[in-house]
User: Fold these one by one.
Assistant:
Number 1:
Amino acid sequence: MRDFHVHSNYSDGEFLRSMVRAAESAGLEGVGVADHCNVATREHHASMRSVYGFNLDLTYERRRRGIDRLREEFDLAIYDAVEMDYDLRDEAAIETFLAEAGFDYAIGSVHDIGGRNVQVSSNFSAMSEAERDAVVDDYFDQLVALVESELFEIAAHVDLLERTPPLRGRATDDHYRRVAQAFAESRTIPEINAGRALSDAGIVHPSDRLLSLLREYDVAVTVGTDSHQPTEIPNRVDFLAEFVAETGLEPVSPDGLER
Ligand SMILES: [Zn+2]
Ligand SMILES: [Zn+2]
């Protein structure tokens, strides 16, 4: 089993070396280090980058030297990957950056709608029902655009809104069908994301309703634990192994990745 989505201290995770060591201890044959990266030039994003220090666009070459070194030390495949923030307005900047950086593969994520992180409940709790529905519509427009852009091998946590109580349960079958249809026609594949699977909420992305539509459209999937701490890896790996066994899914590698 391989895990195509973990973070390191090149964004908001623990030390790169600790993450790789935990992946090896968990018995993984491969681990993909997919640190957050945002290349939007709008002021909001530029200031968020300086506040949070997610600067893989500036540090990927240093991280690559680290990964090369760890490849000699550890007995598993280590993939040099990225989790890019996607926004339709940034397509040209993302395309230029990905071509220049040459990662093993790229994960695309919609994290923000209208400058608000969709994982943060307080961003939406004061909104009216209609405003929340508009956020959900915007989210799926962005997600479909991400898939249609063909910029990414993987799309992360495709029903991320389900994490967020004010936005949860608002996606319609029409939203989900548009997503499934877009994946069916794209090289981009969704991941089974275990980032919240073992939390109180017990959420797997995509949830049953979307997952069954993706299967109806014959969309392949990959897997990621979305771990940020070494201790998260083994339990989430076990969870994903059981999940794919129970559901009969056969996860695949990202497009173009040699094993
Ligand atoms: Zn993410
Ligand atoms: Zn992530």
Number 2:
Amino acid sequence: MVSSENQRILVWLRNDMRLRDNPALYNAAEAGEGVVAVYVLCEDFIERHSTAPSRLDFIRRHLRQMQTDLAERNIPLVLLRVRRAGEIPHQLLSLSRREGCHSLYFNAEYPLDELNRDRAVAEYFHDHDRHYKRFHDRVILPPGKVRNGQGEPYQVFTAFKRRWIQMARELPMVPHGLPAVQPKALGQVSDAGMTLDSLFRGVHLKDLSALWPAGEEEALSRLAEFADGPIRDYKSKRDLPAEAATSTLSPYLAVGSLSPRQCLTAALSANEGRWDEGSEGVTTWISELVWRDFYQHVTVDFPVVCKHKPLQGHTDAFPWRDDEEDFNRWRRGETGIPIVDAAMRQLLDTGWMHNRLRMIVAMFLTKNLRIDWRLGERWFMSQLIDGDFAANNGGWQWSASTGTDAAPYFRIFNPVTQSERFDPDGRFIRKYVPELARVSTRQIHQPPPVPGYPAPMVDLKASRKETIALFQQLNGSSSKG
Ligand SMILES: Cc1cc2nc3c(=O)[nH]c(=O)nc-3n(C[C@H](O)[C@H](O)[C@H](O)COP(=O)(O)OP(=O)(O)OC[C@H]3O[C@@H](n4cnc5c(N)ncnc54)[C@H](O)[C@@H]3O)c2cc1C
């Protein structure tokens, strides 16, 4: 048993499941006073945020790895479970008292629920004469820092990106190394909390370990492999779902077994340190990392998006259709539009979907079926192993034309044209929709009747026209009002 003297630092792990480039862990370990790590599973957050069973299992597997990796550095990992987020302040304070920790360190998370949770913990610690320190690891530039000439947040991505690059290139882009090994005598806890099995008891889990092995070694090797080759063709091939042309790092970034800074430094070193020239593949990929930061900033600058509301307030009056049967057909991948069905089945099978397809299916749901984007947003979170509030909300509000720098309401993707362009030989469709395996390449995007495969559930042209008219009415009435 460790003395109850306050001598150690408590590090609260959340979506930062890695040892390297983890500022909270690194800085706590540098103090050399001993570190205790803790993870808190919150049942209420799982329910409210519709966390996918595949993502929960991914978290579970990461925790197992973290327990081993941290133990090698004499850092014990305590596992706790709470029903409600409101219990967390008390649980963390009790733990810090019991295990002799004078301070709490954690890396920031930006959606409103998480910010409120962390504020409550910080206040509670402050009220009980304990310190806390918040670090930023989830983004390359922390929210609140990237501002236009008037000191306001950017709403247009290209302007944000220009300023972001100016600022980021001034930073020392050197990721933190491994946290220091702690004194062995300080590497014990009197109560390790729950076992990993009991932590997840009764929680619905989906094992996708064959597709998505856990851990930071896996994440770093995927990054190295991508930066070593495919990144160069990223610009020309990233929209082709049948190709393995994107990094597939999103699950690792979401759970935090990889940091965006590690991604950026790998990209820069593949491009001789150049940010916006050199390999077009690399600079295009860097842009995606900026999109990632952009949406994290949006959640802080415009917290209305965290309240199930559109960023463009007037679009809340849009007459979304409430049709459960249509929604279910979309969810199951039985719409009769091959590219949409292949994409939705990719999501069900793998917990992941290619970016071009996310845009196609989100537009189809919101613009052709006219079903509320919030239902699609929630369904994605309930299925995605890379579910991330900021990126998902940003993607849905972009597709529904309700968000910041969103797709204009009149620019509606035609899924058949998209399919012809981005899956020209139908390879992706055939992989996920076996009913269409024998249909010719010429017909695969819009097949003739095929036994066992449904006819298109909606007239693409007519529904597109109707949606545009409804948006025009909405904009007309909002500009009059
Ligand atoms: C409707 C919709 C929902 C989405 N939901 C999520 C989500 O829940 N989680 C998530 O991580 N991404 C989401 N995205 C963004 C994007 O589709 C995925 O990040 C990307 O497909 C992941 O594949 P990758 O790792 O191979 O990406 P790459 O193309 O290799 O890109 C590298 C990284 O950049 C980031 N990134 C890329 N594109 C975007 C983008 N448009 N917005 C924000 N970050 C981006 C991701 O972290 C990604 O891993 C969504 C997009 C849309 C249109």
